[in-house]
């Protein structure tokens, strides 16, 4: 339940078109619901403006189905991240209206229209094709949270001319998410070119001395471009969530 739904529910009780007992039943699962394998936070939309997102990694298919079932029962949209194909199949069977993105490893169940909440576009910039799973996770998440999202793929520093040819798109963005592995240099380059917030996402892509993304992480943390913000390794979701908070329009009183 989000803020607008709560307003409508209380308004219906005030107008007499909804019985108080029926409204109480609707509110019974707020602020959370204990289903044994999880304690689902139905109150999150009211606090943060977006519903709880499910991390699929390390959960069993049975746990995933049970959690998504209770979230979907509230009538809102559901996003699952880090979902491997073998775990996605039961969700696809149980919720045929949902969409699984194998590259992003996300499952999206859209039950109501996604209201645009942003002031501008979040641009997801991907250094190399190998970084695409993390970049796509960021793009899918940002769209599910109500943002206009653009994507630039394979514009890393090994061929910097590919990025320089797209400077206008960089300047038009409200927030830029930069996803890169190896030495993680791309966020510094972009951070020195634009005036908007840049969120850097190191990926675990790289040879041995990349240390599973640690080299990219340290490079981004030590960026010489002022104001570059860095999230954890492979955390496309976290970058999209942070970008959404930056991009969000102030709610009307």
The number of domains = 2
Q: From the alpha-carbon coordinates, what is the Rg to the nearest angstrom?
A: 20 Å
Overall pLDDT:
88
Which class of secondary structure composition applies to the elements? alpha/beta
Straight-line N-to-C gap: 19 Å
Question: How would you sum up the global shape?
Answer: globular
**Strand adjacency order, main sheet:** 8-7-9-10-11
In CATH, what is the class of the largest domain?
Answer: Alpha Beta
Q: Helix fraction? A: 25-40%
Number of strands: 11
Order of helices and strands: HHEEHEHEHEEEHEHHEHEHEH
In this structure, how is the largest beta sheet organized?
Answer: 5 strands, parallel
CATH topology title of the largest domain: Rossmann fold
CATH arch. level architecture of the largest domain: 3-Layer(aba) Sandwich
In words, what does this structure look like?
This protein has helices at 3-15, 20-27, 44-48, 61-72, 85-94, 132-144, 161-164, 167-172, 186-191, 214-221, 236-247, and strands at residues 32-34, 39-41, 54-55, 78-81, 99-101, 106-109, 121-126, 148-152, 175-180, 198-202, 228-230. It has 253 residues and is of the alpha/beta class. It folds into two domains: 31-109, no CATH class; 121-247, Rossmann fold. The strands form three sheets. The protein has a five-stranded parallel beta sheet with strand order 8-7-9-10-11. α4 runs parallel beside α5 and α6 (132-144) runs parallel beside α11 (236-247). It starts with a helix and ends in a 6-residue tail after the last helix.
């Amino acid at each position: 339940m989000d803020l607008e739904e709560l307003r409508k529910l209380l308004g219906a009780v005030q107008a007499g078109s909804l019985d108080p007992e029926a409204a109480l039943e609707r509110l019974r699962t707020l602020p959370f619901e204990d289903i044994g394998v999880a304690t689902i936070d139905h109150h999150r939309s009211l606090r943060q403006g977006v519903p709880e997102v499910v991390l699929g990694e390390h959960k069993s298919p049975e746990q995933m189905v049970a959690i998504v079932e209770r979230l979907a029962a509230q009538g809102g949209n559901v996003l699952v991240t880090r979902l491997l194909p073998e775990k996605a199949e039961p969700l696809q069977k149980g919720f045929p209206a949902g969409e699984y993105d194998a590259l992003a490893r996300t499952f999206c169940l859209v039950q109501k229209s996604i209201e645009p909440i942003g002031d501008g576009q979040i641009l997801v910039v991907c250094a190399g094709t190998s970084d695409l799973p993390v970049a796509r996770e960021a793009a899918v998440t940002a769209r599910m949270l109500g943002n206009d999202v653009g994507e630039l793929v394979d514009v890393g520093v090994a061929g910097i001319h590919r990025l320089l040819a797209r400077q206008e798109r960089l300047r038009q963005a409200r927030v830029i998410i930069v996803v890169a592995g190896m030495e993680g240099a791309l966020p510094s380059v972009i951070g020195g070119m634009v005036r908007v917030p840049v969120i850097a996402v190191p990926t675990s892509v790289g040879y041995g001395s990349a240390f599973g993304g640690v080299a990219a992480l340290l490079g981004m943390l030590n960026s010489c471009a002022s104001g570059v913000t860095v999230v954890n390794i492979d955390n496309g979701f976290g970058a999209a969530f942070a970008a959404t908070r930056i991009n969000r329009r102030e709610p009307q009183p």
